[in-house]
C-alpha cells in the first residue's frame, strides 16, 4: 500500500498517513502553499499557517516557482513567507515541507548545477538546512535522465534533502526514472504529484496509477478541488468572484452537474461541506496518501477539515464514481 494509517490524535489534521518507503508521517490534507504571496498576502498567509498547524496539520507544499507570475513577484515568494513564519513561530521541526525545482524561469530545468543552486536558494528562503520532500517539478528531456537523478541522489546523501519525488512526468518517463534509480542504487522517487479529482480522473486512473502501484509510491493529487469547482460554489446562473473562476466553470456541464448532485447528497448525509466530501473521496482511491488543497482564509480551510475524519459509505463512493465516470 502507498499509505497506511498510524497513530491518531484528537486534532482533526493530525498526521496519520505514511508516505511510502519513508519515515514521513503526514496529515491527510496537504496544504497548498501556492496561495502565499498570491491570493493571500503576508498577514493572511501567517493566519492560514497558524490555523492549519493549530488543527494538527504538518504537511505544507510549495515551490520555488510560486508565484513568479504575479507582477512585482520574482518567484520564491511563497518560500520567503513560509520562511518568515517558520522563524517567527519556531515550528520547523513540527512540519514536513515539500518544495520543487525546474519551473522557476530563473532556475528552469533539471541540469545538475541548477538543481544544486535551486536547492540552496530554497533553503535560504525557507530558513532551514533541509527539505523533507524535494520534487522535480517537471521532467527535463534536455538533460540526460541519469545525470539529474544522480544530482538528486547527491542531495539525499548530503542530508540536505530527506526524500525526493516527481511531478508532471509522463507515466513512461516516470517508470524509466524509477528503473534507473533501482539499477544504479540511487535514492528513489517516493511520491508523485499530479492532477486528480472527481472531474479529472483519466490521467491518474488509466496511466499513472499502474506505475504508482508497480513501484509502491504515494500519490499526492493536486487540483484536488478542480480549481474550486468541487467546493460546490460554482452552480448554473451563479457568478463567483475568484481568480480561478475561468478555470473552474469549464467543469459546469452535464457531467459536472451530476458530480455536484452526488456531492450534495453525501454532504447532506454527513452534515459537512461539499469540498470535504470531494477530498474524502480521494482518500478512498488506491495509492493516494494526501490530497493537496489550498484556502485563502482560515474560514475556507475550516470547510476542508472534515475530510480527515469523514468515512464515506460504499454506496456514497459508488454514487460519486458513477456520477463522475
How would you characterize this protein structure?
Helix content is 41%, strand content 13%. The chain contains 11 helices and 10 strands. The strands form 2 sheets. It has an 8-stranded parallel β-sheet, covered by helices on one side. The longest helix is centred in the last third of the chain and has 17 residues. The relative contact order is 0.13.
Q: Looking at this structure, what is the CATH superfamily?
A: NADP-dependent oxidoreductase domain
Mean pLDDT: 94
Q: Please trace the helix and strand order, writing H or E for each element.
A: EEEHEHEHEHEHEHEHHHEHH
Task: Assign the structural class, choosing from mainly alpha, mainly beta, alpha/beta, alpha+beta, or little secondary structure.
Answer: alpha/beta
The total count of helices amounts to 11
For the biggest sheet, the summary is: 8 strands, parallel
| Topology-level CATH name | TIM Barrel
Gross geometry:
globular
N-C termini distance? 24 Å
- Total count of strands: 10
Give the second-level CATH assignment, the architecture. Answer: Alpha-Beta Barrel
- Radius of gyration from the alpha-carbon trace, in angstroms: 19 Å
Beta strand % = 5-15%
Runs with pLDDT <50, length 5+?
A: 1-9
Helical content stands at 40-55%
Structural domain tally: 1
What is the CATH domain class? Alpha Beta
Give the strand order, joined by hyphens, for the main sheet: 9-8-7-6-5-4-3-10
